[in-house]
Amino acid sequence: MLRAVVFDLDETLAVPDRDRATLLAEATEATGAPSLDRSEYVEVHRRHLTRETREPIFDELLADADVDPASVAAAYRESVTNSLSILPGVEPMLERLGERYRLGLLTNGPVRAQRTKLEALGLESPFDAVRVTGELPAGKPDERAFAAILDALDVDPGEAVYVGDDVETDIEGATETGMATVQVLLPDATPDPRADAHVDQPDLASTLPTILDELDVE
Predict the structure, then answer these.
(1) Cβ 114 vs Cβ 107: under 8 Å
(2) CB of 94 closer than 8 Å to CB of 5
(3) CB-based contacts of 145, cutoff 8 Å, min separation 6
(4) Buried b (16+ CB within 10 A) or exposed e, 14-30
(5) Secondary-structure percent of the chain, ordered helix, strand, coil, rounded to 5
(6) Cα–Cα distances in Å, from 84 out to 14, 27, 117, 207?
């Protein structure tokens, strides 16, 4: 029996109005920092999922530059936060799902970055539990991250489904933990066969409730 639904945040419930490479370029330009490669940023970010801020990320990336990493982190946080909006229909969907399931949110990233997003979007209140990996011993796909949100919701892995877009951090991580998974498909994304179901990102709010009904009877 399905008792809980846990969501990813970025590119699942909230989407930016411009790509992350552009947002990163805006932050470096605003602070006079050298331009940074987005793929290199992502690689370093993965090593700092349990931090308070993004400052250690930029400290590593800009080690040879005469720039304050904290100022770049703050500028990037502001650019990302201001770019985000909730997918259409998500808020009423969460309200409906909350009448049937315990709702959780598990998001990768430093505490200040992710909590700032949630506050700006007003997205904390629909959830019974929210966990940011900056507050945890490990980030997704580590099973400890998923265990933290499951413990907070007081459910077993087999009683929960995880909804997210990233194949490695979301689908692989949740599957290895023993949760069912729904992959949110961005444009040009390839459906992962390990996911129990798939939904195109724009159709999340309208389609997910039906998918959950189907998973609940399997």
Answers:
(1) yes
(2) no
(3) 106, 108, 131, 133, 136, 138, 139, 173
(4) bbbeeebeebbbbbbee
(5) 50, 15, 35
(6) 6, 15, 8, 22
Calculate the alpha carbon distances from 212 to 50, 87, 123 in Å: 31, 18, 21
User: CA 88 to CA 198: how far, in whole Å?
Assistant: 18
Residues ≥6 apart with Cβ < 8 Å to 82: 120
Q: What pLDDT, in 10s, does the model give residues 118-159?
A: 999 999 999 999 999 999 999 999 999 999 999 999 999 999
- Return the DSSP state at 178: T
For the four alpha carbons of 196, 160, 168 and 206, in that order, the dihedral sign comes to: positive
Please say if the pLDDT value at position 31 is more than 90: yes
| β-pairing verdict for 14-16 and 84-86 | antiparallel
Q: Distance of alpha carbon 199 from its chain centroid, rounded? A: 16
